[in-house]
Amino acid sequence: LERVGGVDSPPGGGWTLAAKPTLAGKGEIAMASIRKEILVEASPEHVWAAVRDVGAVHERLVPGVLVDGHLEGDARVVTFANGAVVRELIVDVDDDRRRVAYAVVDSPLQAVHQHASMQVVADGDHGSRLVWITDVVPDELAWPVGDQMDQGAEAMVRTLAATRSGRTARP
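Above: the chain sequence. Below: its structure as tokens.
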């Protein structure tokens, strides 16, 4: 399984199937590891401010893809434009590394395991690279999860570029 394409597809981006880890007593399973490197025409500080605002991703990061979002303790509950509601445990928000990590704990896809991280790094003098990695089991979920990530990446590029000078993004 390999799919390279989508919004950005720089070297190292795209979809790959990770090695098959062995679970004790369970045999082999395949885990998909999906990596997106999203180039954004905005400063790392601006991009990080939106990414780290984990309770407002539907407004600041991916409007139109997500239509609602709120925090419930250590979890974020988001609603997709198609009506799907997903609960994500916020694992870490690291300001020094500009990295957020979260685990999907309830979703219509019913993954056995789904964990993701987003990290913001400088790219050139005025841009940013947002590295978004999602690991999901079973690997058959790579296609629907990857499609959601493609939609999210497109919304991020549009939203973050539009809001870098104080404008309001349109979904």
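The mean pLDDT is 84.
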